[in-house]
Amino acid sequence: MKFRLTKEEKSWAFYDWANSAYSIIITTAVFPLFYKAAATNAGVSATDSTAYLGYTISIFTFILAMLAPVLGTIADYRGMKKKFFTGFFILGTGATAALAFIPADNWLMLLVVYTFAALGSTGANVFYDSFLTDVSTSERMNRVSAFGYGIGYIGSTIPFIISIAIILLSQSGIIPLSVTNASRAAFLITAAWWLLFSVPMFRHVHQIHFIEPDPKPVAQAFKRLGNTFREIRKYRGLFLFLLAYFFYIDGVGTIISMSTAYGSDLGIDANSLLIILFMTQVIAAPFAILYGRLADRFGTKQILYVGIAVYTFVCIYAYSMDSVTDFWVLAMLVGTSQGGIQALSRSYFGRLVPKENSNEFFGFYNIFGKFASIMGPLLVGVTAQMTGNTNAGVFSLVVLFIIGGIILYFVPDPSRYEPVPEN
């Protein structure tokens, strides 16, 4: 039978279409270039500005890692998940728009506002990810999750093309905008796109699995959280997967969030970087969907190993990267796997968790991911400053993929795993 998504599954996946504009324009492309230019104009060296960006990413991921499990536990109560999602959504879109009004020479303020935008985006994603268990079944999660990432990459290219066009036209003098103001326009386009296309998520996605409210929800949430900490080791599949995920997703997230800074440090001009990043999105869309289909045919774990192998090669190859051609090769390799490895990780975990506690467990999923994201950028930043070579920092990430792959071997197949504590 032809695989057809339900209205709820489509509406959920469409949020990836909305939010992915932030991922490419703010996290990966335009904002890093805008920030790097501001830092350079202020006399900050290329290596130091890359390190400061890494430290900033570490700070906001640490904050979210502290909040995610507690808020996730509270969000499992009836009606709370959408409220938390909405709060972080407003913070993210508001701060993204605010980036357009920061003076171009104030690189420190840019990092501060970027921290709030990133908190909003990643915080909303904590609750968005957990909604997967509300809109789909275990048997459908691989394709639904992969479809979300796939249309996310497709959707992100539209505001990205518009933003690139405005920037290039301003550079050539065809439109009466400075390059600085053209970049600011890209920030406003991102916020508007994110707002507009999140409407289906708000209208059609609702919390189906929940715990009935408690008279003292905060106190009870901490009690439940403490119980989960004590009991999580009994969920063998969950524990092992989280441990594997902690390591390999660190490398994935670090490469994605700091790729533009790497290219800039290599001397690749801004226009070339934007074109390369655009092509990465084009490549990533069909491959994310392909990963979902291959996982249904060959097994999710086996296809996760394909993604880990690709990223391991990327880290090794990056050590000797010194040209635009090298960066092109690595970008295309990353494009084949970045959406797939994230989509299958999300669906694999979603099939392991007890649905009525999905937000609590997705809180742990995100805390492991976010704590890992502290280590990666910090490692790259410190290594880059110590060696004066950003490539060495990228190469150091290879060990994370190897460790993650080894632990993943021991994670059970979700189709044969019941998320019930062992006796």
From TrEMBL:
Residues 237-423 form the Major facilitator superfamily (MFS) profile domain. It comes from Bhargavaea cecembensis DSE10. This is Putative transporter. Keywords: Membrane, Transmembrane, Transmembrane helix, Transport. It is a multi-pass membrane protein. Its main location: membrane. Gene3D superfamilies: MFS general substrate transporter like domains. One of its GO terms (molecular function) is transmembrane transporter activity. The chain crosses the membrane at residues 12-35, 55-77, 84-102, 108-128, 149-170, 182-202, 238-258, 270-291, 303-321, 361-380, 392-411. The keyword Transport applies. It is found in: Cell membrane. GO terms for cellular component: plasma membrane. The keyword Nucleotide-binding does not apply.
